[in-house]
Amino acid sequence: MKIPVRLLIPASKLLSLHKPHIKPLSQSFLLHTSPDSWDRRFPLHRPRGQHILTNPRVLDAIVRKAGLGSDDSVLEVGPGTGNLTVRLLGAARHVTAVEIDERMVEALKERVENLGLSHKLTVIRGDAMKMQFPYFSTCVANIPYGISSPLIAKLLFGQYHFRTATLLLQKEFAYRLTALPGDSEYNRLAANIRLVAEAELIMDVSKRDFAPVPKVDSSLVTIRPRSGSIIPVDLKEWLGFTRVCFSKKNKTLGAIFKQKRMVLELFKRSKSEKKNCMNGEFENIVDLESDGEGESEEKEIKQVNPHELGLFKETIGKVLEKVGFNEKRPSKITNEDLSCLLRAFNQEGVFFQ
Ligand SMILES: C[S@@+](CC[C@H](N)C(=O)[O-])C[C@H]1O[C@@H](n2cnc3c(N)ncnc32)[C@H](O)[C@@H]1O
């Protein structure tokens, strides 16, 4: 995969260049923590993404980059044995850690108890994807990469109000997430995220900083939910629309919307009943990433009238021409432009959900 060229400094160099903007943990605090290395006390479960981040300099850098203040309530998803947790506890007021594996929960509790920091920590044992999170001002986590997309959707569309989410993610996913319109990497995931947030690439982290060493490298990303000026769209409609637009992201919109199969699919959708979708319900149905064709559920309609279908096709062509987007490519245009096109389609009775 081609990675866009950016001024990205590897974690190891960055650590020596940057002054921490929070007070660093004192040596004595670190001396009293358990070692960050993995002692193999139980077998790790790879399908659950159990790769322990063991490089103390990278762990310190993540906390520094998260810009925590002493008033922060941190949400950590997947604390594992607590290498990141103990540092978060040193910098924030409170940490809520959500962990699915009972063995990790026990190890974490014991470690934090030995440090005398239990009063600052709430551990919730459970699946982060199946619970309502308590209040948090910021999320900092080295998450299991298998839940990256649904977890980010849950954070951003689940009616939580938080300042930032600083997440360690699989490198390729991080680069796709933070791509901008015009980048070769720009894609549906990035467009959907940019609707409600800004995502910034912070630093790369080598796979060698984990135990056991995973197959992939990682990158740290900071996501900032937009506080104002969110483009007003029906989210479900937007998701259906970006799925269509990015189904062939390097073709022109004119070519995408001319495909017979696409016209027929949209015709069926536009004939079927629609439901508006509020943010709260949205997190359960959201799929930010997939941009394949034909993955959406089939809409039931008994018969397609060829005359009606022909008029519908004409309408699509007219809308694209009116808005002037026939020759534009979805990977190169902003969300403002996309939403303008979506509005024009909806006004003419063309719907995407
Ligand atoms: C990549 S490890 C990170 C461990 C630790 N944060 C570190 O940096 O060393 C991911 C952790 O998430 C946990 N986990 C996996 N799926 C989870 C889920 N659905 N909900 C909560 N925790 C989960 C795993 O058990 C594991 O401890």
UniProtKB/TrEMBL annotation:
Record key words, sorted: Methyltransferase, RNA-binding, rRNA processing, S-adenosyl-L-methionine, Transferase
InterPro entries, per the entry: KsgA/Erm (IPR001737), rRNA_Ade_Mease_Trfase_CS (IPR020596), rRNA_Ade_methylase_Trfase_N (IPR020598), rRNA_adenine_dimethylase (IPR011530), SAM-dependent_MTases_sf (IPR029063)
Residues holding S-adenosyl-L-methionine: H51, L53, G78, E99, D127, N142
EC number(s) reported in the record: 2.1.1.-
Top EC class for this record: transferase
Taxonomy, superkingdom: Eukaryota
Residue span(s) of domain Ribosomal RNA adenine methylase transferase N-terminal: 58-227
Protein name stated in the entry: rRNA adenine N(6)-methyltransferase
